[in-house]
Amino acid sequence: MEHLRELKEPAKSEYHLLGRVDSVVLGSIYPDAPRQKSFLLLFIRSGAGELSREGRNWNAVPGSFFLLRFGISYLLQSKSDPLRITGFLISGTPNRLPFFCHTRADSDVRKLLDTLAGSQPCSDANSPVLDRLIALLQADYAYGKRPVLFYLDQLKNILDDRYAERLSLSQFAEEIHVNKFRLAKEFKANFGLSPIEYLINRRVQEACRMLLQTNVSVADIGNAVGMENTPYFIRTFKRKVGCTPGNFRSAPRQFTERFSTVRNGLLNKN
């Protein structure tokens, strides 16, 4: 990452590795940072699970990591597969970063995490690695490559799973406890679409699947994906896919390439 060349090494390290743990979560645990001016960096290596706090849930998937701050309780649970995790207890406070983030570690971050995983806690040798790791995250955040904030990840899960419900931006904001204008702006900045447009795309994506894999009528498919008004459903489908639902079903090979883009979530934004 070229912008990292501009970073200056700190005169004195701000961060120290206090402890490290490798664990397999078969049920549930309560991870936390046990002391002030420290945080827990939790890295998910494999498996499937969920991190919870105050009734909110976030997927814990391979390659994701969380910065968990002192004084807040979290619950980490495995799902179908055991979670293999590495936790790093780090002293210091990473400025200019959201204290709770959930993202995918890129290759540079992954290398630094692997280096930490093979090092000894309470050693000065860890400090340059930690400084580099935090500087990398801060630089990415400052240059726009920001981790997906937890509430945006939560909203995306709602749209992916509950597309058939009657949903509105005001409802999202109330459920997630974030201002609706901020929510819409940040969601579009991260995913390239407004929450409502993302929801429409998700509904059309599911409609395509049902048209190809079932004999359900066009009207009933519209109802099933949350668009009860059949004329509106047909207009929206044609605007997104380039043909009516009936034509899509009767000549699927003709629209194979278009369906591929629909399936991958790359619908046009018109």
UniProtKB/TrEMBL annotation:
Domain HTH araC/xylS-type intervals: 153-251
InterPro entries tied to this protein: Homeodomain-like_sf, HTH_AraC, HTH_AraC-typ_CS
Top-level taxon of the source organism: Bacteria
Molecular function in Gene Ontology: DNA-binding transcription factor activity; sequence-specific DNA binding
Keywords recorded for this protein, A-Z: DNA-binding, Transcription, Transcription regulation
Protein name per its UniProtKB record: HTH-type transcriptional activator RhaR
Species for this entry: Caproicibacter fermentans
Lineage: Bacteria, Bacillati, Bacillota, Clostridia, Eubacteriales
